[in-house]
Design a protein that fits this description.
Blueprint lengths: L1 E4 L4 H14 L2 E4 L17 E4 L7 H10 L3 E4 L9 H4 L4 E3 L6 H17 L1 H9 L17 E5 L3 H12 L3 E5 L10 E2 L2 H7 L2 E4 L13 H6 L4 E5 L8 H9 L3 E6 L21 H8 L3 E3 L8 H19 L29
Parallel strand pairs: 1-2, 1-3, 3-4, 4-5, 6-7, 6-9, 7-8, 9-10, 10-11, 11-12
Helix pairs in contact: 1-11, 4-6
This protein binds 1,4-dihydronicotinamide adenine dinucleotide.
């Protein structure tokens, strides 16, 4: 089988080139994002492979279907960028549900520690032989309250790490895991009680702008906010206001609402047109990174292997356990426990 691999970066090829021969697949690498005009590059392919900022809308799906493409392989876990309803009964949408939740949780923690203790600023200072520590004061995390929104694979690991610091962890999840050992609370309590708030829920219509003017106004002064999940969980305009008003003490963002045109790309020679992004990055207490929380060797290898396995299962007419289907289960993910057959 042949895969048209969109939005290719050099680091993708390291693992996919190594593993694809094991599965007998060949790959056509394409540097640009997928869009209606370049679907044709997948003309003789059985599958396309896409990443977080490839927008796979109805037009793209219809074109791929007309070209005979049978699978959309997401080499990520989030699938908010795919119109999977339009794909139903046409093209299978397969994702990598977990590759290294540790990578994302550990990185979220790194963001928190940097934002709290200002190591990102200390690094620039000492490189310039400025050894002053004025303005770099942080706070002990020990004894403080951390609010985790979304207690799934990543959220649970993050909650465990924060507990290790001696933080009291409270969590909100509409479908909480059984016996997580963490105090489950309503969303309002997350906003009002937390010194640190860390977002680990998927982007859905319910979670879009879950951090907004109203929720920000309920938060403690100087709250630290971490988002390594999806940018649109936060209303950026409201966040900027909250930073300006000193409501928020520090922000660590690995994702950004309008990241598609910027993240993963070298735009250092360009004039950035996104004024909200530029404004955010102008604040000393806001640290923005370019969607790299997943980026460890272990995660990259697991992503490549699961992506190729997903296609292999389709090739062998096996049950597609990583399929996204809107008809059953919550948020498009099939309730697989009772299912043995594919949805179409
Ligand atoms: P998961 O599916 O294991 O956990 C998500 C949890 O969120 C579930 O327990 C679910 O019940 C909960 N949830 C659903 N709706 C909610 C709501 N309205 N409010 C609060 N919680 C809600 O997913 P996992 O693996 O923990 O990933 C979480 C998110 O992290 C993904 O959706 C993805 O957007 C993001 N991510 C970011 C990466 C990065 O490199 N920055 C890499 C991997 C994932």
């Amino acid at each position: 089988m042949k895969i048209a691999f969109y939005d290719t970066k050099p680091y993708d090829r390291v693992w996919f080139d190594r593993l694809a021969p094991e599965y007998g697949f060949s790959i056509r690498y394409i540097e640009s994002h997928i869009h209606p005009d370049n679907c044709i590059l997948a003309a003789d392919c059985d599958a396309v492979c896409v990443f977080v900022n490839d927008r796979v809308d109805q037009t793209v799906i219809d074109r791929l279907y007309d070209l005979g493409v049978r699978a959309i392989l997401l080499r990520c876990s989030g699938y908010n960028n795919v119109d999977y309803k339009s794909a139903f009964e046409k093209i299978h949408v397969l994702r990598v549900p977990a590759y290294s939740p540790y990578a994302v949780a550990e990185y979220s923690c790194a963001l928190l520690l940097s934002v709290n203790r200002k190591t990102h600023r200390a690094y620039s200072r000492t490189r310039d032989y400025n050894f002053s520590i004025n303005g770099l004061i942080g706070a002990d995390l020990h004894g403080k309250t951390a609010g985790v929104v979304g207690l799934g694979k990543i959220g649970r690991i993050m909650a465990g790490i924060l507990s290790g610091f001696g933080m009291h962890v409270i969590a909100y999840d509409p479908y909480p895991p059984k016996d997580s050992g963490f105090e489950l609370v309503g969303l309002d309590q997350i906003w009002t009680r937390s010194d640190v708030i860390t977002l680990h829920c998927p982007l859905t219509p319910e979670t879009t702008h879950i951090v907004n003017r109203q929720s920000l106004s309920m938060m403690k002064d100087a709250v630290l906010l971490i988002n390594s999940s999806r940018g649109a969980l936060i209303d950026t305009g409201a966040l900027i206001e909250a930073v300006v008003n000193r409501k928020v003490g520090g922000v660590g963002l690995d994702v950004y609402e309008e990241e598609d045109d910027y993240f993963f790309e070298d735009r250092s020679n360009d004039i950035l047109e996104d004024e909200e992004l530029v404004r955010l990055m102008s604040f000393p207490n806001v640290l923005v990174t370019s969607h790299q929380a997943f980026f460890t060797a272990e995660a990259m290898e697991a992503i490549a292997r699961t992506t190729l396995q997903n296609l292999s299962m389709l090739k062998n007419n096996a049950f597609l356990e990583n399929e996204i289907c809107y008809r059953c289960g919550k948020e498009g993910v099939c309730d697989r426990e009772n299912k043995r057959e594919n949805c179409f």
